[in-house]
Amino acid sequence: MVLVKAKKLSVWEKLFFWPLVKGLWTTFSQIFHKKVTRLYPEQRLESFPEMKGHPVLVRRPDGKPRCVACGLCEFACPPVAIYIEGHEIDDEIERAPKVFEIDNTRCIQCGFCEESCPKEAIVISHRVEFGAEKREDLIYDLETLLVDEHEVEDRLDYIRKTFERWKT
Q: Rounded to whole angstroms, how far apart are CA atoms 67 and 112?
């Protein structure tokens, strides 16, 4: 059996205001240190190619999506946040999505859709901010998801560089 001795308190420690004075001194001493808080709307987080945000669809130079509606991203999505309906078109790619929806309330930004796409049509962008008043506003359709290639070029370069090391 181990006996624990109680600490003998000094007169200052017995007084109630001593811990209060120590707390105020700690607070006052922190006033002159450098601030580490980011003031969000004015100071945005810098984005890196490795950063994951919302998935977007890449647009070809003619304005149509790169997507051929193969359904691999829909199949690879763990939370089942992607819904695709494809249809035949009279073009060199022969297929395109008629309906392409991503439910951002379900999306976990895992990047499996990006990894499974053979055409680099769906890419995880740097968009990390979104807000809506209704849940239905967070279901993005084809027109909302389309972005030009130059907006996600750094992410595409990062993907190509990452997958290049797995080639034999």
A: 16
Give the domain ranges of the chain: 55-164
**Where does the pLDDT of residue 40 fall: very low under 50, low under 70, confident under 90, or very high at 90 and above?**
confident
122: closest CA among 139, 105, 97? 97
pLDDT tens string 122-160: 999 988 888 889 999 999 999 999 999 999 999 999 999
79: number of Cβ within 10 Å: 12
Measured between alpha carbons, how far is 113 from 72 in angstroms, rounded to an integer? 7
- The two tokens of residue 161 are 């560089």
Q: With 0-12 CB in 10 A as exposed, 13-18 as middle and 19+ as buried, what is 92?
A: exposed
CATH numeric code, 55-164:
3.30.70.3270
Cα angle, residue 108 at apex, residues 115 and 150 outer, rounded to 5°: 50
CA 74 to CA 125: how far, in whole Å? 18
pTM over 0.85? The answer is no
> What digits encode the pLDDT tens for the residues 74-101?
999 999 999 999 999 888 878 999 999 9
